[in-house]
Amino acid sequence: MDCYLDILDSPIGPIELAATDEGLVYCASPREKGLDMRAWLSKYLPDH
Questions:
Q1: How far apart, in whole angstroms, are the C-alpha atoms of residue 35 and residue 31?
Q2: Residue 34 falls within a domain, yes or no?
Q3: How many domains are there within the chain?
Q4: What rounded mean pLDDT belongs to the chain?
Q5: Is residue 48 part of a domain?
Q6: Of the candidates 20, 26, 33, 37, which lies 20 to 30 Å from 2 by C-alpha distance?
């Protein structure tokens, strides 16, 4: 399985991106006041 990984800087902190054959997943992990919050989204890529 091919996988592309990247990290983007954003106002809420780094956003980890992972694109795979199944779709796109991103994880936002802002660290505020010692907390590690994560939000995941999985979306299938269009069939082109």
A1: 5
A2: yes
A3: 1
A4: 62
A5: no
A6: 37
